[in-house]
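seq as requested:
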Amino acid sequence: MTDSGRGAGPDFIEALARGLGVLRSFRSGTPTQTLSEIAARTGLARPTVRRILITLEALGYVRGADRGYALTPRVLDLGMAYVNALSMWDVARPHMEKLVAQTNESTSMAQLDGGDIVYVARVAVPKIVTLAVTIGTRFPAPATSMGKVLLAALPAADLPAVLAEPSRSGITPRWQPTAAELDASLREVRAKGWALADQDLAPGIRSVATGVRDGDGNVVAAINVTVHAAETSVETLLEGHLPKLLRTAADISHDWSLTAAVPAVTV
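struct tokens:
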């Protein structure tokens, strides 16, 4: 069994874990799957997968397709519930839109999930890039500017366990650093307060990122500016776009801290 592995303790609900494993088996490049394919990917028995799919279909999260099953847009509710619970998009959106207007380049926000980054907010401009990015897209953290920022912010004791988790992105990055190379890179990020990824993930993708902080100064997300390497040099990215990015991150951090400080009111 892969994503739907057994947990520990009497309170672990294995049926729920199996259902989530079935949902996670739908990845980029596999929008539609047969029952057999899902069983093979999750490691679950076909009868179990069938019951889970029937349940998910009744709840509106999957639908029957020409070649098996496909997710429905209702699945987005699961991810957006997380984003909306943090007021992340509401706080970040105006600042990200302003940054895009200033740079004419796309900007995204991500958080760490194991050894991957997961995109939680994005304002894009039409550009031809080698990798499609949407909310929920995940990439291996070490090969991305946002990932470097988030990894650099982790307590040293937590970093080995995070890096040991296998990526669920399905992407093989160009840059696969040794432990020493990654350590040196993260030390540099801590010293500078920002990170550069120059085609580390894939050809043509160049980005710079910095952290978004809460009221206690903890890095809770990362925000970037992404450019096409054939159009924008490293010098332009760092000298032209980075100062604007740093200001945007500071503004989002400020507003986020204010939002978090407002007490909840029960009517």
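The domain at 78-261 is CATH 3.30.450.40 (Beta-Lactamase).
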